[in-house]
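Contributing new complexes? Match this layout with magnesium ion.
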Amino acid sequence: MTFTVPGGSPVHALKNVSLTLEPGELLSVLGPSGCGKSTLLNIIAGFLAPTSGSVLLGNQPVKGPGAERGMVFQQGALFEWMNVERNVAYGPDMMGKDKAETRKTVERLLKVVGLQDFGSKPVYQLSGGMQQRVALARCLANDPEVILMDEPLGALDALTREKMQGLVLKLWKETGKTIILITHSVEEALILGERLIVMAPRPGRIEKEYRLDFAERGLTLSPREIKSTPEFVAKREEILSMIWNMEDEIMGGGSSGNSTEA
Ligand SMILES: Nc1ncnc2c1ncn2[C@@H]1O[C@H](COP(=O)(O)OP(=O)(O)OP(=O)(O)O)[C@@H](O)[C@H]1O
Ligand SMILES: [Mg+2]
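Output block (do not edit by hand):
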């Protein structure tokens, strides 16, 4: 993917990126700012057409946005003037689905995300974490095959964020959806991704890929327990210093490899 800007030199946002996901996989994507994570996700979502190359869903080329690929953004992108139920029902309503059927779906999904008592509330009356849960439910209401998330938990406080990580894991297990999740948090990427790719910038590319079992363990153990295991700590440090060094190159700074996550 190369962006051309009038009067500027072309930006090689992505180069030689090749990736295959099996149905039901949960992939997390990490990398320094500007390495092309959102660009990659937007191409998969069909919001952007790649300069060259293609995205296939099954054997079908992706030519634009489609209901089989649902997107959850960093801020919910909800309709503030609608109540929770109507937000969640939006996709099925637009597709002209049976009203009674949709009502049942909405009820079930609000239960899944723990908002069963909030259906009639306008979304502006909800907290950030609750709004992100509505966004998740709204995405699920379209029953997409693939869920694309661009830092869906980035705006949440640490505690709510950890709870939401548990919810994403639960949804992944219960629905068997294929999920691609972009995050700036190394811990989050490790806890959620059974596959994890670390991207590098200039040009944006996949630098390293991991297969992890923390997500699987997260279905029985609490995130807190997993995060304190030696394996987890070692992986976190390895990836943090990898990204730290990349950021150093970008910023031209002279800091050491020691880092803690912000
Ligand atoms: N529409 C555009 N026109 C020109 N350049 C763009 C456009 N969109 C993205 N870019 C450039 O492509 C590169 C990758 O951007 P992208 O938004 O994918 O990064 P990112 O990894 O998501 O960063 P962040 O972590 O900050 O969200 C950046 O250099 C960015 O400036
Ligand atoms: Mg981005």
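Reviewers usually confirm one structural detail per submission. For this one: The pocket of adenosine-5'-triphosphate (ligand 1) is lined by residues 3, 5, 11, 13, 31, 33-39, 204 (CB under 6 Å).
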